[in-house]
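User: quick one
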Amino acid sequence: MSTPSDEILIARIAKGDRLAMAALFARYRTPIFRFVLRIVRNETDAEDVNSDVFVDVWRQAATFEGRSAVSTWMFSIARFKALNQLRRKPVDILDEEKAETIVEDADDPEVALAKKDKAAALRQCLTKLTVDHREIINLVYYQHKSVEEAAQIIGIPEATVKTRMFYARKKLSELLKERGIDRGWP
Amino acid sequence: MNATDEPSEIEFLLPWYAAGTLGEREARQVEAALARDPELASRYEWVREELAQEMAINEATPSPAERDVQTVFARIDALPRRAAASPNRQNRIAEFFAGFAPRTLAWSAAAAALIIAVQAGVLADLMIKQSAGSYSTASAPASDHGDGAYVLMRFAPDATSTEIANFLSANKLSIVDGPAAGQVYRVRVTLTKLDPAELTRIVKTLQGDKVVGFVAAVQ
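Assistant: Done. Structure below.
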């Protein structure tokens, strides 16, 4: 049994086909939710945003022009809504300074163990990045978005995507170094 | 690369190379650079580790709660109707639940299909028994979708026939229809309508049973 492409599903959704909507929802509910969750860092908020995204897809399907992949379009919507959610709850934003403070203060047994465990330390540092850096890391490493797709989703030039990813990784290096793991660059 | 060096174009591309999302030409350039530069190859190992740990973080993240399904479609139902005709409600529900199997389901497709087939056979048998009066709550015809309180239910793939029968009996439940796509059954909870809050409470209780894969109230 062949699986309809995203583009076919969107065309059917544009005509009011709820089965197509159900299929697209089943296909993307988890990736979109996880992308949003990495930005808003609150499951309830992420579920709310996820719901908003798919309702918007239903409403705007007829306006989809195919200038990008359907998934790219959906991730753009998700990103916009997730960032709006963050703006509504500024207290939840963990900026770089706060993240650094947490790293420095978090000298508990878990951190002590993490210092000995490269993988665990890396996971912890990945969660301490800024929103911009968490976002690009997630798009590239987990959502497997190309440079072009990431640029379309975030709305920045491709060159900026590459440098943002590089600086996200540079920040990771710094955070790891604070935990006693020096990977030697940059 | 030391602290004063500007990163090379290849250095920028390493994450996409690791993720397999580079074009063929750029991928070949990265491969060639990795082959001739041991330091770059060493840094690439870190990129691979970053990718692995970002994957691990996400895979450890819970999936969205299944109630999001109802939320999204309730909101869509509240919107003005589109001009095009939409499929009937029963088909919508059946098709809708078809895509619900968790991506990380450990069963192989073949094993899962076999289990579902066996389970469907068992449940069909239970429906026949119920309609014949084997269960005290099944006094009404099995196809009766009139008054009463109903839930949509999918059983856990590994639930045995005995467990399902015991679960239905213990909770005085009757399967009245199904399976729809996604192995979802319509199950009667009571012969009379229930207050929504009471039905929600019952759904929460049923959801806690290991026999149940998914359950939602039918309003």
